[in-house]
Specification:
7% strand, alpha/beta, 440 residues, four-stranded mixed β-sheet
Length: 440
C-alpha cells in the first residue's frame, strides 16, 4: 500500500508542477469568462452614426409609421435611383412599399447591396405589423375592439411550488432544476473524458520511454495502475476547486460590469393607444417578486443530495473509465493506435450525454430510468434526474451497479495492463487482449 501512495504522490506532484498545468489552471477561468462576456460587450457597441434607410412609399400611407432609432434613420424618397445601388452609396437599404398592406401584406420589399441585417428587418416588421394590426381593427368599426382583443388574449401566469418534507410550501422553478442538474452532468462528462485521457497518456509516455520496465521491477503493475488513476484524480479535484473559486470571483466581478442593462428606448408608431402602450410596458417589466421566487427556487434545490451524489458518481464513473483508458494505453505502443480502443468508450459517454439531454423533458421516463441504472451512462444521466427527485432505492441500485461494474472494469483493466505494459512492437488484436485477461 505504501508503494501506491508513493506513485500517487509522484503522479500528483509531477503534473501540478508542470508549467502547462499551472498556465491552464490559471488561464482557463479567464478564457471561459471571456467567451461569455466579450461577445456580450462587443454586441453592445453601436455605430456612432445611424445608417440611412430610404423609404419609397407609393401609397403615401406609411411614411409616418417608420420611427428612427440609434441605428437607423428613415428618409422618404420618391423612387429608387442608380446611386443607391452603388457600393459607395450612403444608403444602407431601401424599403419599397408598392401597395396597401391591409389588402396586400406582401407588397413590401427591402433592397440592399448585401444581405439585409436582422435588426433592420426586425425593426421594419415590428413597426409595420403594429400599424397593420391597428388598420385592420379600425376597419371593423367595432367600439372598444382593441380592449376586447387584449382582454381575450390575456394569458395565465402559472406559479410552481413543491412541498418539503415537513409539509411546507416552497417556490420551485423547473428551469433552475434543469440548469443545476445539467451543470453537474456536464462536469462529470468533461472530467471523466479529460482525466481519463490523461491516465492513458501517462501510461503511454512511460511505456514508449521504457521507464515502465524499471518501475515494474520494484512495484506491481496493479499498484502502478491504481497509483496513476488515483493520483490523476487528485490533480483533477485540485484543478476543479481552483477553477470553481476563480470563476465565482470572475463572474461576480463581471456581473457588476455587465449586469446593469442599458435603458432601451421604445419607439412606437404614432397612433398607438394607451391600452397598447401599457400592455407593452407591462410585458417588458419583471413580475413583482420574481427575483425572490427565483432565490427561493435556488435555495430549495437538494444541494446536499446533489453534492454527495456528484462525488459518488464521479468516483465510480472515473474508476470505471480510467481503468480502461489505462489498459488502452498499456496495450499499444503509439498514440495513433489508441483510437480503436477509446472510440467505443467515448461514443458510450456521448450517448449518455445525449440521453441526459433528452431525459430533461421526462426525468421519470423509460430513457431516463434505464440510462440512470446502466453503469456506463448512470454517472451522467442520474445527475439530471436528482434535482427533480429520485426514489432512494433507484439511487442505491444505480450506485451499486456502478461500483460493482467499476470494480469489474478495474480488475479487467489490471489484467490487460499487467501484460500489455511490457508488450512492444505490434498492435494487439482484441482476441489477443482477451487471452491476456485469462492469464494468471
Amino acid at each position: 500500500m505504501n508503494k501506491i501512495f508513493i506513485i500517487i504522490r509522484r503522479e500528483f506532484l509531477t503534473r501540478v508542477t508542470k508549467k502547462s498545468f499551472i498556465l491552464l489552471t490559471l488561464l482557463m477561468p479567464f478564457i471561459f469568462a471571456a467567451l461569455v462576456f466579450v461577445p456580450l460587450a462587443l454586441a453592445g457597441i453601436k455605430d456612432d452614426k445611424a445608417k440611412q434607410v430610404a423609404l419609397v412609399d407609393k401609397t403615401g400611407l406609411y411614411a409616418e409609421t417608420f420611427q428612427n432609432n440609434e441605428a437607423y434613420t428613415f428618409i422618404q424618397v420618391p423612387d429608387t435611383t442608380a446611386e443607391m445601388r452603388a457600393d459607395d452609396s450612403p444608403t444602407e437599404a431601401v424599403v419599397y412599399i408598392s401597395d396597401t398592406l391591409t389588402a396586400h401584406p406582401e407588397a413590401i420589399t427591402i433592397y440592399s447591396r448585401r444581405e439585409v441585417s436582422s435588426d433592420l428587418l426586425t425593426l421594419v416588421q415590428t413597426q409595420l405589423n403594429e400599424r397593420l394590426r391597428q388598420d385592420k381593427l379600425r376597419a371593423y368599426n367595432v367600439p372598444e375592439l382593441e380592449r376586447i382583443i387584449e382582454d381575450v388574449q390575456a394569458q395565465v401566469s402559472i406559479g410552481t411550488k413543491k412541498w418539503t418534507a415537513d409539509g411546507t410550501e416552497r417556490h420551485s422553478d423547473t428551469f433552475v432544476a434543469i440548469g443545476a442538474g445539467f451543470l453537474f452532468t456536464f462536469l462529470i462528462y468533461m472530467f471523466v473524458i479529460s482525466y481519463g485521457a490523461m491516465v492513458m497518456q501517462s501510461v503511454l509516455e512511460e511505456k514508449t520511454g521504457r521507464i515502465v520496465e524499471l518501475m515494474v521491477s520494484s512495484v506491481k503493475p496493479f499498484q502502478l495502475m491504481m497509483g496513476k488513476i488515483i493520483g490523476i484524480a487528485f490533480v483533477g479535484f485540485l484543478q476543479l476547486a481552483i477553477w470553481g473559486i476563480m470563476l465565482a470571483v470572475i463572474l461576480v466581478g463581471a456581473s457588476l460590469v455587465f449586469g446593469q442593462a442599458p435603458s432601451m428606448g421604445m419607439h412606437l408608431p404614432p397612433g398607438t393607444d394607451a391600452a397598447t402602450l401599457q400592455a407593452m410596458q407591462t410585458a417588458t417589466q419583471p413580475a413583482e417578486g420574481s427575483t425572490e421566487q427565483l432565490m427561493q427556487a435556488l435555495i430549495g434545490l437538494p444541494y446536499a443530495e446533489m453534492g454527495i451524489m456528484f462525488v459518488l458518481y464521479f468516483i465510480g464513473g472515473y474508476l470505471l473509465y480510467a481503468s480502461f483508458f489505462a489498459a488502452a494505453g498499456a496495450s499499444v505502443s503509439q498514440q495513433e493506435d489508441t483510437s480503436q480502443f477509446t472510440m467505443p468508450l467515448i461514443l458510450l459517454m456521448m450517448f449518455g450525454l445525449y440521453a441526459a439531454m433528452y431525459s430533461i423533458e421526462n426525468t421519470d421516463g423509460p430513457l431516463a430510468f434505464w440510462a440512470s441504472l446502466f453503469p456506463l451512462t448512470s454517472p451522467i444521466v442520474m445527475m439530471v434526474r436528482i434535482p427533480f427527485g429520485v426514489p432512494l432505492w433507484q439511487e442505491l441500485l444505480s450506485l451499486s451497479l456502478l461500483f460493482a461494474t467499476a470494480l469489474l472494469f478495474v480488475w479487467i483493466g489490471a489484467k490487460i495492463y499487467r501484460v500489455g505494459i511490457l508488450m512492444y512492437g505490434k498492435k494487439p488484436s482484441l482476441k489477443e487482449i482477451a487471452r491476456w485477461i485469462k492469464y494468471k
